[in-house]
Specification:
Shape of chain B: elongated
Number of helices of chain A: 9
Strand order of the largest sheet of chain A: 5-6-7-3-8-9
Oligomer: heterodimer
Largest interface: A-B, 44 and 35 residues
Radius of gyration of chain B: 31 Å
Number of strands of chain B: 0
Distance between the termini of chain A: 23 Å
Strand content of chain A: 25-35%
Number of helices of chain B: 15
Helix content of chain B: 55-70%
Helix content of chain A: 25-40%
Radius of gyration of chain A: 20 Å
Strand content of chain B: under 5%
Shape of chain A: globular
Number of strands of chain A: 13
Largest sheet of chain B: none
């Protein structure tokens, strides 16, 4: 199901056979993909290598082997890394804050690190406005809620109109309303630039992503449109009054029937699969389902 | 400026249209400008007419300027001191979050130096204030170790992927830490005038240990590098101190020359390995748990 990086056009990121090991553990194993403008979701179970991959793309760590071309530059060289960093926005999995800073001061601090010299304060105000934090500019970060802190981190990520924005699980820990607002922000961020969004939430992928990559055990299992990911499970999802024996995964729905994924019996009541169904089917093919996260 | 005279004392006098337009465009000159402003402050009707004379874009821009001025962050105490010392505002902000400049750290350094100085006073029978000279070099070493790295800087990962070179940020913070610890150590030395110039024997090892630690950082990470160098310093002291007098060859002229040479060699080594600071891999595991502890 892996898509080779042969897609035509001007790719923002072109990764070919990227590999990385931490001691004996293989974090990434010959990962290949391309990214274009728009929002691409990165799905995968815990330990799949998502954060490692994002850190490589963000130039925080280098890959052991493989080719990477980001925004036309080679991040393996110092000059290439600098070129990428000047056009990069990055929201790490655990964005750290200096707690005594206000939201404005923290974003200003990142703006200095990003070497934004022209009208720096105006740019800080612009990004804080873009994430809806006009009223919290002067609030100390330690006094902000988790959702607001994530927005501060997103504001820092979009400083200087980056061409590539990398977001590592930005919706983790947010309540449903905050998650909806964040999706809207991400969708807006993806207009005219490339956004790579790592997430556990298939709803995030369904609502804001034009492309999706599924990473599992350090390998790319799928790259394509979300609808194509759902189609992976076509003919393998059905409902039944009782839990179907032998189903790969089955759960009782709110309607009282069971939602089953796997090899259906001959008389099964097949339904249209969702992205989640496609994702679970893929991960099952890799043997990950049922293993502890 | 029109010469038309209006009845100024009367309550029904208002700024003529031409003058209002002149004021709005910024062309009005004193003293007419002052009297117009005084009148506008008291006359709602003229203020309303003034709004019609002003370019809306200019009004918006003016509000934005005012808003930006009001919104501009007020520097904290550390930042304010650094700016007063002549540092550019953006550099002061980069240094403001250096752990080695926090009050708690500076207080710990001052306390440690006070204890070391007191110990040197007690041991006045020797010709060298060994407690101070042994401990003072460790302070910048520790200060630098806690100033930058994946486990002490909450936004370390963001700093690594920023265009500003990580090595430059590290050097800035090292310079700040070295400056403060050197100043405090110098003050402690002034409290021991009876020892003469030998009391400044901590300076060369301070530089040597800090630079050695930096040179090892890309390979070991900041904390482990400082630990290795600190233990090395302790071993060196233990090997050279003469038991009855407490004197060490490290604080003689040849010993100091050797430490100065070590500092120079270490500085060259730091320069050679500077590219190792450019990514997070060699500086320890990228920030994960460390960040959660910060908030």
């Amino acid at each position: 199901m892996t898509t080779s990086p042969t897609q035509a056009g001007t790719a923002t990121v072109r990764a070919d056979e990227l590999s990385l090991r931490f001691g004996r553990k293989t974090a990434l194993d010959a990962v290949s993909f391309v990214l274009h403008d728009g929002v691409t979701g990165l799905l995968g179970p815990n330990g799949a290598g998502k954060t490692t991959l994002l850190r490589i793309l963000a130039t925080a760590i280098p890959a052991d082997s493989g080719q990477l071309r980001t925004l036309g530059a080679d991040p393996h060289t110092a000059a290439g890394r600098l070129a990428v960093r000047r056009r990069l926005g990055y929201l790490p999995q655990n964005p750290g804050f200096h707690p005594h800073f206000t939201a404005f001061e923290f974003v200003d601090y990142i703006a200095i690190l990003k070497e934004i010299t022209h009208a720096r304060h105006e740019e800080v105000r612009r990004v804080l406005h873009a994430v809806g934090l006009d009223g919290e500019r002067g609030t100390r970060i330690r006094a902000l809620s988790g959702g607001m802190r994530q927005r501060v981190a997103l504001a820092a990520a979009i400083l200087g109109e980056p061409a590539l924005v990398i977001l590592d699980e930005p919706t983790v820990g947010l309540d449903p309303e905050q998650r909806l607002r964040f999706r809207e922000l991400i969708a807006n961020t993806g207009e005219g630039r490339t956004v790579l969004l790592s997430t556990h939430q298939t709803e995030d992928v369904m609502t804001v992503c034009q492309q999706v990559i599924v990473l599992d055990q350090g390998r790319v299992r799928f790259q394509g449109e979300p609808a194509a990911l759902a189609a992976v499970a076509r003919g393998r999802v059905w409902t039944s009054a009782t839990r179907a024996p032998g189903a790969l995964a089955a759960w009782r729905t709110g309607a009282g029937t069971y939602h089953n994924i796997g090899d259906p019996p001959p008389d099964a009541d097949l339904i249209d699969p969702s992205i989640e169904d496609g994702y679970l089917t893929l991960i099952d093919a890799a043997g990950t389902v049922g293993q502890p996260a | 400026m029109t010469t038309e005279q209006a009845p100024r004392s009367a309550g029904d006098w208002h700024v003529p249209d031409d003058d209002l337009r002149s004021y709005a465009s910024g062309a009005a000159a004193p003293p007419w400008l002052w009297s117009t402003e005084a009148h506008l402050a008291a006359c709602q009707a003229c203020r309303a007419r003034l709004a019609d004379c002003v370019d809306p874009a200019a009004v918006t821009a003016g509000w934005e300027r005012l808003d930006a001025r009001l919104d501009a962050p007020k520097p904290g105490p550390v930042e304010a001191v650094l700016v007063r010392l002549g540092l550019p505002a953006h550099t002061a902000r980069l240094l403001a979050c250096t752990p080695g400049l926090r009050k708690s750290w500076l207080a710990a350094v001052a306390f440690t130096l006070a204890v070391a100085t007191a110990a040197a006073h007690v041991a006045q029978s020797t010709t060298v204030p060994t407690p101070l000279l042994a401990i003072a070099p460790l302070l910048p070493l520790i200060g630098v170790a806690i100033s930058f790295g994946p486990h002490v800087d909450p936004s370390y990962e963001l700093a690594v992927v920023a265009p500003l070179h990580t090595f430059r940020l590290l050097l800035l913070r090292c310079a700040a830490v070295l400056s403060t610890t050197t100043l405090l150590s110098a003050v402690a030395s002034l409290a021991l005038p009876e020892y003469g110039p030998v009391v400044l024997g901590w300076l060369a090892p301070s530089l040597a240990l800090t630079l050695l630690s930096l040179a090892l950082t890309p390979r070991l990470g900041p904390v482990k590098a400082a630990l290795v160098v600190g233990l090395g310093w302790a071993a060196l002291l233990a090997a050279t101190v003469r038991v009855p007098t407490g004197e060490s060859a490290l604080f003689t002229a040849p010993g100091q020359a050797g430490l100065a040479c070590t500092a120079i060699v270490a500085a060259l080594a730091v320069w050679r390995v500077r590219s190792g600071f450019d990514t997070a891999r060699r500086l320890g595991r990228p920030v994960g748990q460390a960040n959660r502890r910060m908030l």
